[in-house]
Design brief:
Layout: H1 11-15, E1 23-24, E2 31-33, E3 41-42, E4 66-71, H2 75-86, E5 91-98, H3 101-115, E6 124-126, H4 130-135, E7 141-144, H5 151-160, E8 164-167, H6 175-190, E9 194-197, H7 205-215, E10 222-231, H8 245-251, H9 257-260, H10 263-266, H11 269-279, E11 283-291, E12 303-310, E13 315-322, E14 329-336, E15 339-343, E16 348-351, E17 356-360, H12 362-368, H13 374-388, E18 392-393, H14 395-414, E19 418-419, H15 420-425
Parallel strand pairs: 4-5, 4-7, 5-6, 7-8, 8-9, 9-18, 10-13
Antiparallel strand pairs: 1-3, 2-17, 10-14, 11-12, 11-19, 12-13, 14-15, 15-16, 16-17
Length: 458
């Protein structure tokens, strides 16, 4: 099953050709509409059935037993492991992998204590090749939650071995990884595999309902937007005396470009993904700026601002910041020809006069569903698709938002315009040439970019 049967390139061009006859807007169990909006005739951007809407019950349907292997046992990998176990009956975890043994053992201890799942020592794998051992251990699916730069390699091997994949976001950090992800996604489709990514807003009910309303024409044609992830500093780990260069960077991975892609890629990809998902468009060029003000480790920025030109000429403004003590905003705003969508703590659509014509009913969700955690709902949908023998490819869609983030980053780093055509063909590869867990590495290349001369240390 494909998520979207219409070409992303022609999405809005096609929408302009839809019959003006339109459709009548209707409410749902998760919708609150004004009386006025129910009488308005809307012209849909896409006809119902032509776009993908996930089924989001409280628990996955019963079916064949499924064994999962977890690759990356840190905070997100551990969280995803329990999301998987809470999503269905008849699912378990049989193998674990991480670069470091203490993380494997920590997750194994939690699984034993909280779920009575015993991971024997011979199913606990460590080191850079541990992912292969998990994938080859007899699992049905893999949960991949390592630092993002490893994602393309792990996805490729899992797909070669015929495993369904959950890929935590982001799924690549550079153009080389992007091309690998896209190629592997095609292979996964050919093998009828289910690939879900950690862009959990695709399984968050208020976002899904809002997406349906936009497709039904409630805001008209999309004409632009602004997306934000402005928040505080994330964690960092001080280097310990016994750690090697590589060990320190991996344990402090969220602060290093080659591992995280910088926070515009690692975190802000969520917001960029919302706009590329709702609009069906990819960016053709980006002009951005950013800087490093207060980050204490690593070699990346702590703020970005990017102007994206989309393929039909409309603009998207992107803002992200990880600095304490500043104004915070994690949300998306999408402007249309007939109104605007606000995706914040009060998900709603307003007409051009500012009247609320649709609002998501959070109380109805609580009344109708027990499971409201999007991180678990994405696993419920994944399991249902696997058990139904249906494929899904979220990797290709997430790759577009991921590349948008890379374009914005590179424009800010260099001070130059970046384009989709140039970036997708770029040989840029952030992998260190001398990666080693045990020896010294050449650290001279890990510098904070300066626009106009991007790899000179400040």
């Amino acid at each position: 099953m494909k998520e979207n049967s219409i070409s992303r390139r022609t999405f809005l061009k096609s929408s302009a050709l839809v019959s003006a006859a339109g459709m009548v807007g209707t409410g749902s169990a998760l919708t609150s509409c004004t009386e006025k909006s129910d009488k308005i005739v809307y012209t849909p951007l896409q006809e119902p059935g032509s776009y993908y809407i996930p089924d989001l019950p409280d628990l996955a349907n019963d079916g064949k037993e499924l064994k999962a292997g977890v690759i990356g046992c840190g905070g997100r990998g551990s969280g995803a492991a329990f999301n998987w176990l809470n999503a269905a009956k008849g699912v378990t975890i049989t193998a674990l992998a991480d670069t470091f043994k203490e993380r494997v053992d920590d997750l194994a201890g939690k699984l034993k204590k909280e779920k009575n799942i015993d991971i024997p020592e011979n199913m606990r794998f460590t080191g850079f090749d541990a992912y292969k051992q998990v994938i080859d251990s007899g699992v049905d699916v893999v949960i991949v939650a390592t630092p993002p730069n490893f994602r393309p390699i792990h996805f490729q091997y899992a797909t070669e071995k015929g495993k369904h994949s959950f890929l935590e976001k982001p799924i690549c950090v550079d153009p080389t990884g992007y091309r690998s992800i896209v190629a592997t996604a095609r292979q996964a489709q050919a093998k009828n595999l289910c690939v879900i990514t950690g862009t959990q807003r695709h399984h968050q009910r208020n976002y899904v309902e809002a997406y349906k309303k936009v497709m039904e024409g409630y805001i008209g044609e999309i004409t632009g937007g602004v997306v934000y992830w402005n928040g505080g500093k994330l964690w960092h780990r001080d280097r310990q005396p016994k750690w090697t260069d590589c060990e320190w960077m991996i344990k402090d991975w969220v602060n290093w470009k080659w591992l995280s892609g910088d926070h515009i890629v690692e975190q802000h990809v969520h917001n960029l993904d919302v706009f590329t998902w709702f609009s069906g468009l990819k960016p053709v060029k980006a002009v951005g700026f950013g800087s490093r003000q207060r980050r204490v480790t690593g070699d990346q920025y702590d703020n970005f601002s990017v102007d994206f030109t989309m393929e039909n000429g409309i603009h998207l403004h992107s803002m992200c910041r990880q600095i304490d003590g500043c104004a915070s905003n994690v949300s998306e705003f999408i402007q249309g020809s007939r109104g605007a969508l606000y995706l914040d703590d009060k998900t709603r659509i307003e007409d051009l006069a500012g009247n609320v014509i649709w609002a998501y009913d959070y109380e109805a969700e609580k009344a109708n569903f027990k499971q409201t955690d999007a991180y678990t709902l994405e696993h419920i949908n994944w399991i249902n698709l696997i058990r139904a023998g249906k494929s899904i490819d979220q990797a290709s869609e997430t790759a577009i938002a991921n590349m948008a983030a890379i374009m914005g980053r590179e424009s800010a780093y260099t001070g130059k315009e970046s384009t989709w055509e140039a970036m997708t063909a770029s040989p840029l590869d952030l992998w260190p040439k001398d990666i080693s867990l045990t020896g010294k590495m050449d650290m001279s290349g890990f510098v904070v970019p300066i626009p106009g001369n991007p790899y000179i240390k400040q």
